[in-house]
Specification:
CATH topology of the largest domain: Rossmann fold
InterPro entries: Glyco_trans_1
GO molecular function, one term: phosphatidylinositol alpha-mannosyltransferase activity
CATH superfamily of the largest domain: Glycogen Phosphorylase B
Radius of gyration: 21 Å
Shape: elongated
Helix content: 40-55%
Enzyme class: transferase
Protein name: GDP-mannose-dependent alpha-(1-2)-phosphatidylinositol mannosyltransferase
CATH class of the largest domain: Alpha Beta
Structural class: alpha/beta
Number of domains: 2
Order of helices and strands: EHEHEHEHEHEHEEHEHEHEHEHEHHH
CATH architecture of the largest domain: 3-Layer(aba) Sandwich
Number of strands: 13
EC number: 2.4.1.345
Length: about 375
């Protein structure tokens, strides 16, 4: 049985889309490969769920840094973190080399899996030393003019396979090893199309709930959704909810009007989507690499409002499963909300089409594809 070493580091993000994706990979492989997982936080959600899936401990990596947020990405690297990174990487490589030997891994029976850039360098170094092939899971769209991007592409020349979560990511990297592997969603059996809340007096009827699930960072564009809450035609009928945590929490809270709520990080996203939300919104002002929230929303029959760039626009079909709006345009978001409220039959159709579209990202098919990719590596 082939062995797979998962090199995860959830120190900065806690539990986000990347960690969900890594767990999906583990779930895809656990019955067919001997899987070992690592993480920098021994009690993280990823580490806890990995132990449950694998039935064995998760090896601890050494890491440094916290989620401070960048202008164009989820994280910004601080000076001290940059200084410490080479030393921590060397420490981790030495520790992982020992783990590889203890687990009996070699170039013929093992694969390294790096799901993020922070563990890509250790995977690359270990591959150079041990000749064990590595797979990189690309989940970001990066600036192709930067020195950093050129270094990334140099390292990726050695990757046996590059799994890209969208065509936007694959087009950004433009490397022969790229394979588009969309993130998966659990198809919701029995999901039925949603309807606009009943046309009752405003004081009695349920609110039309528009929700965003995101880290509270500048590039997520949440301020434009918050401003849209003020601009909708009938604010008393609409409730905007922001789920997430991050450095902009206080700033965003100050922008909120009476029909907007900041609700913190949500672990029970599926429960909220199933029973409380009518529209999900991804107002990011830069390109997303995938757009997991719109797709998860679609699986529950929830249309999405997304900016017309990156994979969020690739995943959401304009006027079919939701609406595209320009970045930084609160008025356009408000108009999309108003249009759905004013046209309940069309909203119902969007909801039906969203359910059908989500079936293209079925979890069972995704797991078969992941397994096939890893089985093809030798």
């Amino acid at each position: 049985m082939k062995k797979v070493l998962i090199l995860e580091d959830s120190r900065k993000v806690g539990f986000g889309g990347g960690q969900k994706g890594s767990l999906e990979v583990i779930s895809s492989l656990v019955d067919h490969f001997e899987v070992t997982a690592t993480d920098s936080l021994p009690d993280s959600i990823f580490a806890t769920r990995s132990r449950e899936l694998l039935g064995k401990p998760v090896y601890r990596l050494r890491s440094f840094g916290s989620d401070v947020g960048g202008n164009k990405g989820s994280f910004r690297i601080g000076f001290l973190e940059l200084v410490m990174y080479p030393f921590l990487t060397a420490w981790n490589v030495i520790g992982l080399f020992g783990l590889i030997r203890r687990e009996g891994m070699n170039s013929r029976n093992a694969i390294l899996y790096a799901p993020l850039k922070k563990t890509l360098v250790p995977a690359w170094v270990l591959s150079l030393v041990t000749r064990i092939p590595f797979v990189y899971h690309a989940r970001t769209v990066d600036d192709p003019t930067s020195v950093y991007f050129k270094i990334l592409k140099f390292i990726l020349k050695r990757a046996r396979s590059i799994l890209c979560v969208s065509q936007a990511v694959a087009s950004n990297l433009e490397m022969p090893q790229c394979q588009v592997l969309y993130n998966a969603v659990q198809t919701q059996e029995g999901a039925t199309a949603k309807r606009v809340p009943a046309l009752l007096p405003s004081s009695d009827k349920p609110k039309f709930v528009v929700a965003a699930f995101a880290s509270l960072l500048h590039w997520k564009g949440l301020e434009y959704l918050i401003r849209a809450a003020r601009l909708v035609r009938n604010p008393e009928d609409v409730e905007v909810r922001i789920y997430g945590k991050g450095p902009l929490e206080n700033e965003l809270r100050e922008l909120c009007s009476s029909n907007c709520k900041m609700l913190g990080f949500a672990e029970n996203v599926n429960e909220i989507l199933a029973s409380e939300v009518h529209v999900v919104c991804t107002p990011s002002i830069f390109e997303e690499a995938f757009g997991r929230v719109p797709m998860e929303g679609n699986s529950f029959g929830i249309p999405a409002i997304v900016t017309n760039i990156g994979a969020q626009a690739e995943i959401t079909i304009d006027a079919v499963t939701g609406y595209h709006v320009p970045p930084k345009d609160a008025q356009a978001i408000a108009e999309a909300i108003d249009h759905m409220l004013a046209n309940p039959d069309h909203y119902h159709l969007l909801s039906q089409q969203a359910i059908e579209h989500s079936k293209s990202f079925d979890l069972a098919a995704h797991r078969l594809r992941v397994r096939s990719i890893f089985e093809s590596i030798n």
